[in-house]
Write a structure and sequence with these properties.
With about 425 residues, this protein is mainly α. The chain is built from 14 helices and 2 strands, in the order H-H-H-H-H-H-H-H-H-H-H-H-H-H-E-E. About 75% of the residues lie in helices and about 5% in strands. Strand 1 and strand 2 form a beta hairpin. The chain is globular.
Length: about 425
């Protein structure tokens, strides 16, 4: 027993359960090479699990379950950690189910037992991913619904989705193994009869839950203050980057570059779980402006220096010949010479526009340093020092202690601040 009368096992069993679920996810990953080898031996490597387009869901399961086990072990009362663990488990199970059903029903019919049962489970697993994603967004970052009005909708969505998932598993209807293997359960031609209706209804409700989660973020952000607002900014940035990556994937698929679309889709699967974990754990929470400004600055710097390098190479190539080693050496020296000045200049411009707090703080400290050289009054200096700390650091409390050094009798200033 602990000092508070609570059993000792009650403190560690949530972390143990979380790590056990994470180990289960890793064990399911171990089936991927076996299923992929079966597909390759049967002459269908395109249906395997170790191809570029399958990297995205595999990485999604790994990232979601990793972030989930960290959250669930550290914040066991926060439901998002357990939802992320469940998301990783469902994704990795759906991948194994897809390969198992495709091999047992289409590639080598009858070669694997209960392949038709696994095929029926495959569709609801994909639809459950939508619902879990929606509830993750709905409960981020506080672990509770935005307002009491959302409780009724949450119960309706959860119960409706549960009924539809069961119906999509047991409903009567036809199933086309070829379409299941080639197009997946989302294609309307895969199922028929009541089975098709149940799967389509589950897909629609899953999409509605995602849209409801996105709407809840807007509601939260309008009423959030302080830490919660900063947490939502992380999630909002991840959602925006995910949307851009999904658009790029759609364009690549439309032009026929499926392998590159598979690798690009990796970006769609990593942003949201990582940002959700960072927001809930408040890891480097106030570095978002710095990350955005550094990304923009180095992106612009790369574009500028790349264009400059190409221009110098083309210019010197006309004078000295394209095969002259002096062309590359001259372009490299030119880029090296302008790198630091260009970086400082671009960073200042980006900070002035996108990281205003850092820019204003730097200007304030610079002005205070200039005035400090001419200031001799201790009281005025004390008040101005506290004002600068308040403006640049923005603590909730700030105090200044003055103590006299025993050896010299000179007062020594110690500034202490507290931020919540």
């Amino acid at each position: 027993m602990t000092s508070g009368g609570r059993p000792g096992w009650a403190r560690w069993w949530p972390a143990g359960l979380a790590w056990a679920l994470f180990a289960l996810v890793l064990l399911e990953f171990a089936t991927y090479p076996w299923l992929d080898r079966l597909m390759r031996q049967a002459g269908r490597p395109d249906l395997g699990l170790l191809i570029p387009f399958s990297v995205a869901p595999t990485l999604a399961a790994l990232v979601a379950s990793t972030v989930g086990v960290v959250l669930a072990s550290r914040r066991p009362r926060h439901p998002v950690g357990w939802l992320l663990l469940t998301l990783g488990f469902v994704i990795v199970t759906s991948g194994a189910a897809a390969a198992y059903a495709s091999y047992g029903l289409f590639v080598r019919p009858g070669a694997l037992p209960a392949a038709d049962v696994v095929a029926r489970i495959y569709g609801p697993l994909i639809e459950a991913v939508f619902a879990i994603l929606g509830f993750i967004v709905l409960l981020t970052p506080t672990g509770s619904l935005p307002t009491r009005r959302w409780r009724w909708w949450a119960w309706v969505f959860a119960s409706t989705m549960a009924v539809l998932l069961v119906a999509a598993t047991i409903a009567p209807g036809s199933m086309d193994p070829h379409m299941l293997a080639e197009k997946g359960p989302q294609d309307p031609r895969t199922f028929g009869g009541a089975l098709l209706v149940a799967n389509l209804a589950a897909q629609a409700v899953g999409i509605l839950i995602i849209l409801a989660g996105a709407g809840s973020l807007v509601t939260r952000f309008r009423h959030a203050r302080g830490v919660e607002r900063q947490q939502l900014r992380w999630v909002g940035l991840a959602a925006a980057l995910t949307g851009v990556a999904m658009l790029a994937v759609a364009v690549l698929i439309a032009v026929g570059n499926v392998p590159l679309a598979g690798w690009a889709s990796v970006l769609c699967t990593t942003f949201l779980p990582l940002a959700t974990g960072a927001a809930i754990l408040r890891y480097r929470l106030y570095d978002l402006d710095r990350i955005i400004s550094r990304t923009l600055a180095y992106g612009l710097l790369t574009l500028l220096l790349g264009s400059g390098y190409a221009g110098v190479v083309l210019g010197l190539g006309q004078l000295l010949g394209r095969n002259s080693p002096l062309v590359v050496a001259g372009a490299t020296l030119a880029v090296a010479a302008v790198f630091q000045p260009a970086r400082h200049r671009i960073q200042a411009v980006v900070d002035r526009r996108f990281n205003r707090r850092r820019h204003d703080a730097a200007q304030t400290i610079q002005g205070f340093s200039a005035r400090l050289r001419e200031q001799v009054d201790l009281d005025t200096m004390t008040a101005e020092l506290l004002a600068v700390v308040e403006e640049t650091m923005q603590p909730t409390q700030a105090s200044l202690w003055l103590r006299v050094q025993p050896s010299s009798g000179t007062p020594e200033a110690i500034v202490a601040g507290q931020r919540t």
